[in-house]
User: Which sequence fits this backbone?
Protein backbone atom coordinates (compact mmCIF):
# COMPACT_ATOMS: atom_id res chain seq x y z
CA UNK A 1 0.00 0.00 0.00
CA UNK A 2 1.22 3.45 -0.92
CA UNK A 3 0.44 5.63 2.14
CA UNK A 4 1.02 9.40 2.44
CA UNK A 5 0.64 11.68 5.45
CA UNK A 6 0.05 15.41 4.94
CA UNK A 7 0.69 17.22 8.21
CA UNK A 8 2.40 20.19 9.82
CA UNK A 9 1.75 19.01 13.40
CA UNK A 10 4.70 16.93 14.59
CA UNK A 11 2.93 15.49 17.63
CA UNK A 12 -0.08 14.23 15.66
CA UNK A 13 2.20 13.03 12.89
CA UNK A 14 4.08 10.78 15.33
CA UNK A 15 0.83 9.37 16.73
CA UNK A 16 -0.56 8.61 13.28
CA UNK A 17 2.67 6.97 12.17
CA UNK A 18 2.61 4.69 15.21
CA UNK A 19 -1.00 3.69 14.49
CA UNK A 20 -0.23 3.05 10.82
CA UNK A 21 2.83 0.99 11.78
CA UNK A 22 0.71 -1.08 14.16
CA UNK A 23 -1.70 -1.70 11.28
CA UNK A 24 1.18 -2.76 9.01
CA UNK A 25 0.84 0.32 6.85
CA UNK A 26 4.24 1.83 6.21
CA UNK A 27 4.53 5.58 5.73
CA UNK A 28 8.22 6.34 5.07
CA UNK A 29 9.76 9.74 5.69
CA UNK A 30 9.59 10.55 1.97
CA UNK A 31 5.80 10.24 2.20
CA UNK A 32 5.48 12.88 4.94
CA UNK A 33 4.35 16.03 3.16
CA UNK A 34 3.58 19.59 4.09
CA UNK A 35 0.28 21.01 2.84
CA UNK A 36 2.06 23.29 0.38
CA UNK A 37 3.97 20.39 -1.21
CA UNK A 38 1.11 17.89 -1.20
CA UNK A 39 -0.42 18.89 -4.53
CA UNK A 40 2.66 18.66 -6.81
CA UNK A 41 4.03 15.54 -5.10
CA UNK A 42 0.77 13.58 -4.94
CA UNK A 43 0.16 14.44 -8.59
CA UNK A 44 3.13 12.22 -9.42
CA UNK A 45 2.20 9.39 -7.03
CA UNK A 46 -0.30 6.53 -7.16
CA UNK A 47 -1.50 6.91 -3.58
CA UNK A 48 -3.72 4.25 -1.99
CA UNK A 49 -4.26 6.14 1.26
CA UNK A 50 -3.75 9.82 2.09
CA UNK A 51 -4.17 11.08 5.68
CA UNK A 52 -4.47 14.86 5.93
CA UNK A 53 -4.04 16.60 9.31
CA UNK A 54 -5.85 19.94 9.20
CA UNK A 55 -4.54 23.03 11.04
CA UNK A 56 -6.21 23.76 14.37
CA UNK A 57 -7.51 27.21 13.41
CA UNK A 58 -10.82 26.86 11.48
CA UNK A 59 -9.90 29.52 8.94
CA UNK A 60 -6.59 27.85 8.14
CA UNK A 61 -8.31 24.44 8.03
CA UNK A 62 -10.79 25.68 5.42
CA UNK A 63 -7.96 27.24 3.39
CA UNK A 64 -6.07 23.94 3.56
CA UNK A 65 -9.15 22.10 2.28
CA UNK A 66 -9.50 24.62 -0.53
CA UNK A 67 -5.89 23.99 -1.48
CA UNK A 68 -6.16 20.20 -1.26
CA UNK A 69 -9.29 20.28 -3.38
CA UNK A 70 -6.97 20.86 -6.34
CA UNK A 71 -5.01 17.71 -5.59
CA UNK A 72 -5.21 15.27 -8.52
CA UNK A 73 -6.97 12.18 -7.22
CA UNK A 74 -6.21 8.83 -8.79
CA UNK A 75 -8.84 6.13 -9.09
CA UNK A 76 -9.05 4.19 -5.81
CA UNK A 77 -7.27 6.77 -3.65
CA UNK A 78 -8.84 6.96 -0.17
CA UNK A 79 -8.51 10.27 1.69
CA UNK A 80 -8.90 10.74 5.46
CA UNK A 81 -8.96 14.16 7.14
CA UNK A 82 -8.04 14.62 10.81
CA UNK A 83 -9.31 17.73 12.59
CA UNK A 84 -11.59 19.11 15.29
CA UNK A 85 -15.19 17.95 15.19
CA UNK A 86 -16.33 21.07 17.07
CA UNK A 87 -16.53 23.29 13.97
CA UNK A 88 -19.32 22.07 11.64
CA UNK A 89 -18.17 24.43 8.88
CA UNK A 90 -14.86 22.60 8.61
CA UNK A 91 -16.45 19.15 8.77
CA UNK A 92 -19.06 19.92 6.11
CA UNK A 93 -16.48 21.56 3.86
CA UNK A 94 -14.24 18.50 4.18
CA UNK A 95 -16.97 15.99 3.38
CA UNK A 96 -18.17 18.04 0.40
CA UNK A 97 -14.64 18.07 -0.98
CA UNK A 98 -12.20 15.28 -1.66
CA UNK A 99 -12.35 13.66 1.80
CA UNK A 100 -13.84 10.17 2.21
CA UNK A 101 -13.89 10.23 6.02
CA UNK A 102 -13.45 12.92 8.67
CA UNK A 103 -11.76 11.90 11.94
CA UNK A 104 -12.09 13.76 15.24
CA UNK A 105 -8.60 14.51 16.54
CA UNK A 106 -9.92 14.32 20.13
CA UNK A 107 -10.20 10.55 19.69
CA UNK A 108 -7.50 10.05 17.09
CA UNK A 109 -6.60 6.42 17.85
CA UNK A 110 -10.16 5.12 17.96
CA UNK A 111 -11.32 7.13 14.96
CA UNK A 112 -8.34 6.23 12.79
CA UNK A 113 -8.49 2.52 13.64
CA UNK A 114 -12.21 2.46 12.81
CA UNK A 115 -11.66 4.32 9.53
CA UNK A 116 -8.87 1.94 8.50
CA UNK A 117 -11.07 -1.05 9.34
CA UNK A 118 -13.90 0.32 7.17
CA UNK A 119 -11.49 1.04 4.32
CA UNK A 120 -10.00 -2.46 4.46
CA UNK A 121 -13.44 -4.06 4.59
CA UNK A 122 -14.41 -2.15 1.47
CA UNK A 123 -11.24 -3.25 -0.31
CA UNK A 124 -11.70 -6.87 0.77
CA UNK A 125 -15.32 -7.02 -0.37
CA UNK A 126 -14.43 -5.50 -3.72
CA UNK A 127 -17.27 -3.00 -3.40
CA UNK A 128 -15.07 0.05 -3.77
CA UNK A 129 -16.75 2.00 -6.51
CA UNK A 130 -14.73 1.92 -9.68
CA UNK A 131 -13.84 5.32 -11.03
CA UNK A 132 -14.36 6.01 -14.69
CA UNK A 133 -11.48 7.13 -16.87
CA UNK A 134 -11.43 10.83 -17.78
CA UNK A 135 -10.15 11.65 -21.26
CA UNK A 136 -9.69 15.36 -21.94
CA UNK A 137 -9.53 16.49 -25.55
CA UNK A 138 -7.74 19.82 -25.65
CA UNK A 139 -6.84 21.93 -28.66
CA UNK A 140 -4.21 24.66 -28.15
CA UNK A 141 -6.06 26.89 -30.64
CA UNK A 142 -9.26 26.96 -32.65
CA UNK A 143 -9.74 25.01 -35.85
CA UNK A 144 -7.93 21.89 -34.68
CA UNK A 145 -10.99 19.65 -34.96
CA UNK A 146 -11.06 18.67 -31.30
CA UNK A 147 -14.86 18.77 -31.03
CA UNK A 148 -15.30 16.37 -33.95
CA UNK A 149 -12.67 14.13 -32.43
CA UNK A 150 -14.37 14.24 -29.00
CA UNK A 151 -17.74 13.18 -30.42
CA UNK A 152 -16.27 10.28 -32.36
CA UNK A 153 -14.00 9.14 -29.56
CA UNK A 154 -16.96 9.04 -27.16
CA UNK A 155 -19.02 7.16 -29.75
CA UNK A 156 -16.41 4.42 -30.13
CA UNK A 157 -16.04 4.09 -26.34
CA UNK A 158 -19.83 3.94 -25.90
CA UNK A 159 -20.05 1.17 -28.48
CA UNK A 160 -17.35 -0.77 -26.63
CA UNK A 161 -18.71 -0.19 -23.11
CA UNK A 162 -22.45 0.35 -23.82
CA UNK A 163 -22.27 3.94 -22.58
CA UNK A 164 -19.89 6.88 -22.24
CA UNK A 165 -20.23 10.46 -21.04
CA UNK A 166 -19.41 13.42 -23.25
CA UNK A 167 -19.10 16.84 -21.60
CA UNK A 168 -18.98 20.05 -23.60
CA UNK A 169 -16.64 22.45 -21.79
CA UNK A 170 -16.32 24.86 -24.69
CA UNK A 171 -18.68 27.18 -22.90
CA UNK A 172 -18.87 29.97 -25.48
CA UNK A 173 -18.67 27.94 -28.68
CA UNK A 174 -19.71 24.41 -27.72
CA UNK A 175 -21.37 22.58 -30.60
CA UNK A 176 -21.32 18.93 -29.54
CA UNK A 177 -25.14 18.84 -29.44
CA UNK A 178 -25.26 19.92 -33.10
CA UNK A 179 -22.64 17.36 -34.10
CA UNK A 180 -24.89 14.66 -32.60
CA UNK A 181 -28.15 16.23 -33.84
CA UNK A 182 -29.41 16.49 -30.25
CA UNK A 183 -31.58 19.14 -28.60
CA UNK A 184 -30.69 19.15 -24.89
CA UNK A 185 -33.23 20.36 -22.37
CA UNK A 186 -30.58 21.08 -19.74
CA UNK A 187 -26.95 22.17 -19.74
CA UNK A 188 -23.94 22.66 -17.50
CA UNK A 189 -25.31 25.96 -16.27
CA UNK A 190 -28.55 24.31 -15.09
CA UNK A 191 -26.56 21.71 -13.18
CA UNK A 192 -24.33 24.30 -11.50
CA UNK A 193 -27.36 26.28 -10.33
CA UNK A 194 -28.32 23.32 -8.14
CA UNK A 195 -24.85 22.45 -6.86
CA UNK A 196 -26.02 22.33 -3.22
CA UNK A 197 -28.34 19.42 -3.97
CA UNK A 198 -26.43 17.82 -6.80
CA UNK A 199 -26.82 14.05 -6.53
CA UNK A 200 -26.75 11.17 -8.99
CA UNK A 201 -30.44 11.47 -9.89
CA UNK A 202 -30.25 15.19 -10.66
CA UNK A 203 -26.94 14.69 -12.45
CA UNK A 204 -28.21 11.96 -14.79
CA UNK A 205 -31.34 13.93 -15.67
CA UNK A 206 -29.15 16.75 -16.99
CA UNK A 207 -27.73 14.56 -19.77
CA UNK A 208 -29.31 14.03 -23.17
CA UNK A 209 -28.95 10.54 -24.65
CA UNK A 210 -27.80 9.62 -28.15
CA UNK A 211 -28.70 6.32 -29.83
CA UNK A 212 -25.02 5.35 -29.89
CA UNK A 213 -24.91 5.20 -26.08
CA UNK A 214 -23.22 8.59 -25.71
CA UNK A 215 -24.71 10.70 -22.91
CA UNK A 216 -24.08 14.40 -23.49
CA UNK A 217 -23.84 17.15 -20.89
CA UNK A 218 -24.18 20.19 -23.13
CA UNK A 219 -22.66 23.65 -23.02
CA UNK A 220 -25.00 26.54 -22.12
CA UNK A 221 -27.50 27.49 -24.82
CA UNK A 222 -27.19 31.21 -24.11
CA UNK A 223 -24.04 33.22 -23.48
CA UNK A 224 -25.55 34.89 -20.42
CA UNK A 225 -25.83 31.47 -18.76
CA UNK A 226 -22.05 30.96 -18.76
CA UNK A 227 -21.66 33.10 -15.63
CA UNK A 228 -23.72 30.54 -13.68
CA UNK A 229 -21.05 27.86 -14.16
CA UNK A 230 -18.79 27.56 -11.12
CA UNK A 231 -15.58 25.66 -10.32
CA UNK A 232 -17.38 23.89 -7.46
CA UNK A 233 -20.17 22.80 -9.79
CA UNK A 234 -17.70 21.46 -12.36
CA UNK A 235 -15.68 19.66 -9.68
CA UNK A 236 -18.75 17.89 -8.34
CA UNK A 237 -20.00 17.10 -11.84
CA UNK A 238 -16.68 15.49 -12.77
CA UNK A 239 -16.62 13.37 -9.63
CA UNK A 240 -20.17 12.18 -10.29
CA UNK A 241 -19.39 11.49 -13.95
CA UNK A 242 -16.48 9.27 -12.94
CA UNK A 243 -18.73 7.31 -10.58
CA UNK A 244 -21.50 6.82 -13.16
CA UNK A 245 -19.71 6.25 -16.48
CA UNK A 246 -16.79 3.97 -17.41
CA UNK A 247 -15.39 6.71 -19.68
CA UNK A 248 -15.81 10.47 -19.56
CA UNK A 249 -14.71 12.43 -22.64
CA UNK A 250 -14.42 16.18 -22.15
CA UNK A 251 -14.11 18.64 -25.03
CA UNK A 252 -12.14 21.34 -23.23
CA UNK A 253 -11.66 24.99 -24.11
CA UNK A 254 -8.11 26.38 -24.04
CA UNK A 255 -9.07 29.46 -22.00
CA UNK A 256 -7.81 27.78 -18.78
CA UNK A 257 -10.28 29.40 -16.44
CA UNK A 258 -10.71 27.74 -13.05
CA UNK A 259 -13.61 25.70 -14.44
CA UNK A 260 -11.32 24.19 -17.08
CA UNK A 261 -8.59 23.57 -14.51
CA UNK A 262 -11.01 21.54 -12.39
CA UNK A 263 -11.37 19.15 -15.35
CA UNK A 264 -7.64 18.95 -16.06
CA UNK A 265 -6.89 18.03 -12.44
CA UNK A 266 -9.09 14.97 -12.74
CA UNK A 267 -7.85 13.89 -16.18
CA UNK A 268 -6.32 10.45 -16.69
CA UNK A 269 -5.32 11.27 -20.27
CA UNK A 270 -4.99 14.65 -21.99
CA UNK A 271 -5.14 14.44 -25.78
CA UNK A 272 -3.49 17.60 -27.08
CA UNK A 273 -4.91 17.94 -30.59
CA UNK A 274 -2.98 20.08 -33.06
CA UNK A 275 -2.62 20.64 -36.75
CA UNK A 276 0.84 20.55 -38.24
CA UNK A 277 1.14 24.27 -38.88
CA UNK A 278 3.25 26.94 -37.17
CA UNK A 279 0.35 28.63 -35.36
CA UNK A 280 -0.88 25.40 -33.82
CA UNK A 281 2.68 24.35 -33.00
CA UNK A 282 3.37 27.64 -31.18
CA UNK A 283 0.19 27.35 -29.13
CA UNK A 284 0.83 23.69 -28.36
CA UNK A 285 4.23 24.57 -26.91
CA UNK A 286 2.67 27.31 -24.77
CA UNK A 287 0.02 24.87 -23.55
CA UNK A 288 2.58 22.23 -22.58
CA UNK A 289 4.57 24.84 -20.66
CA UNK A 290 1.42 25.88 -18.83
CA UNK A 291 0.24 22.36 -17.92
CA UNK A 292 3.39 21.23 -16.13
CA UNK A 293 3.24 23.70 -13.18
CA UNK A 294 -0.39 22.67 -12.67
CA UNK A 295 0.74 19.17 -11.76
CA UNK A 296 -0.37 17.65 -15.10
CA UNK A 297 2.40 15.12 -15.66
CA UNK A 298 3.89 14.89 -19.15
CA UNK A 299 3.17 11.16 -19.27
CA UNK A 300 -0.56 11.96 -19.12
CA UNK A 301 -0.36 14.14 -22.23
CA UNK A 302 -0.49 12.59 -25.69
CA UNK A 303 -0.01 14.59 -28.86
CA UNK A 304 -2.55 13.93 -31.60
CA UNK A 305 -1.87 15.32 -35.08
CA UNK A 306 -5.26 16.00 -36.66
CA UNK A 307 -5.93 16.53 -40.38
CA UNK A 308 -2.59 14.86 -41.07
CA UNK A 309 -1.42 14.84 -44.67
CA UNK A 310 -2.37 18.37 -45.72
CA UNK A 311 -0.17 20.11 -48.33
CA UNK A 312 2.73 22.18 -47.02
CA UNK A 313 2.26 21.12 -43.41
CA UNK A 314 5.23 21.19 -41.02
CA UNK A 315 7.04 17.82 -41.07
CA UNK A 316 6.00 15.85 -38.02
CA UNK A 317 9.64 15.20 -37.06
CA UNK A 318 10.22 18.95 -36.71
CA UNK A 319 7.04 19.26 -34.63
CA UNK A 320 8.25 16.52 -32.31
CA UNK A 321 11.65 18.19 -32.03
CA UNK A 322 10.10 21.57 -31.21
CA UNK A 323 7.77 20.12 -28.56
CA UNK A 324 10.25 17.56 -27.20
CA UNK A 325 7.48 14.97 -27.46
CA UNK A 326 6.55 12.22 -29.87
CA UNK A 327 3.23 12.44 -31.68
CA UNK A 328 1.23 9.50 -30.35
CA UNK A 329 -1.44 9.39 -33.02
CA UNK A 330 -2.18 10.74 -36.49
CA UNK A 331 -5.71 11.43 -37.76
CA UNK A 332 -5.71 11.68 -41.59
CA UNK A 333 -7.22 14.65 -43.38
CA UNK A 334 -10.58 13.80 -44.95
CA UNK A 335 -12.64 17.00 -45.24
CA UNK A 336 -15.34 15.49 -47.46
CA UNK A 337 -16.17 12.71 -44.99
CA UNK A 338 -15.91 15.00 -41.96
CA UNK A 339 -18.06 17.76 -43.42
CA UNK A 340 -20.76 15.36 -44.59
CA UNK A 341 -20.97 13.63 -41.22
CA UNK A 342 -20.94 16.87 -39.22
CA UNK A 343 -23.58 18.47 -41.43
CA UNK A 344 -25.80 15.41 -40.98
CA UNK A 345 -25.27 15.39 -37.21
CA UNK A 346 -23.93 11.83 -37.31
CA UNK A 347 -20.52 10.73 -35.92
CA UNK A 348 -18.03 9.82 -38.63
CA UNK A 349 -17.47 6.38 -37.12
CA UNK A 350 -21.18 5.65 -37.69
CA UNK A 351 -21.64 7.53 -40.98
CA UNK A 352 -18.53 6.15 -42.68
CA UNK A 353 -17.05 3.37 -40.51
CA UNK A 354 -14.82 1.90 -43.23
CA UNK A 355 -12.93 5.12 -44.00
CA UNK A 356 -9.34 5.69 -42.92
CA UNK A 357 -10.35 8.48 -40.58
CA UNK A 358 -12.89 6.25 -38.78
CA UNK A 359 -10.36 3.45 -38.42
CA UNK A 360 -7.84 5.95 -37.06
CA UNK A 361 -10.27 7.30 -34.43
CA UNK A 362 -11.10 3.73 -33.41
CA UNK A 363 -7.40 3.01 -32.90
CA UNK A 364 -7.11 6.12 -30.77
CA UNK A 365 -10.07 4.98 -28.66
CA UNK A 366 -8.42 1.61 -28.19
CA UNK A 367 -5.20 3.29 -27.06
CA UNK A 368 -6.94 5.33 -24.34
CA UNK A 369 -9.02 2.27 -23.50
CA UNK A 370 -5.86 0.51 -22.32
CA UNK A 371 -5.98 -2.07 -25.12
CA UNK A 372 -3.55 -2.59 -27.97
CA UNK A 373 -3.98 -3.72 -31.54
CA UNK A 374 -1.70 -6.20 -33.24
CA UNK A 375 0.31 -5.10 -36.23
CA UNK A 376 -1.22 -1.64 -36.37
CA UNK A 377 1.50 0.39 -34.73
CA UNK A 378 4.22 2.29 -36.52
CA UNK A 379 7.18 3.10 -34.26
CA UNK A 380 4.83 2.84 -31.28
CA UNK A 381 2.41 5.33 -32.82
CA UNK A 382 -0.89 4.91 -34.61
CA UNK A 383 -0.48 6.09 -38.15
CA UNK A 384 -2.43 5.49 -41.34
Assistant:
Amino acid sequence: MNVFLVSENDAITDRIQRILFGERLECPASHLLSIDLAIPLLAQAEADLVVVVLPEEPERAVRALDMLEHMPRHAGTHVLAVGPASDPKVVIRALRGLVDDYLDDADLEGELLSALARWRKTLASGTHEAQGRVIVVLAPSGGSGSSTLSVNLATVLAKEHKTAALIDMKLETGDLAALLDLKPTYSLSDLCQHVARMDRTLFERTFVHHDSGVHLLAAPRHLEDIGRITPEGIRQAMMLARSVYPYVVVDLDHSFREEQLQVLRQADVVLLVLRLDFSSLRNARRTLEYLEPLGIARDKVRLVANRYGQPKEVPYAKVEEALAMKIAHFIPDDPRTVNRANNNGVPIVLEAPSTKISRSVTKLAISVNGRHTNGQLTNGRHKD
Observations:
- Residues 133-368 form a domain with the Rossmann fold fold (CATH 3.40.50.300).
- The radius of gyration is 22 Å.
- Confidence is low (pLDDT under 50) at residues 371-380.
- The chain has two domains: 3-125, 133-368.
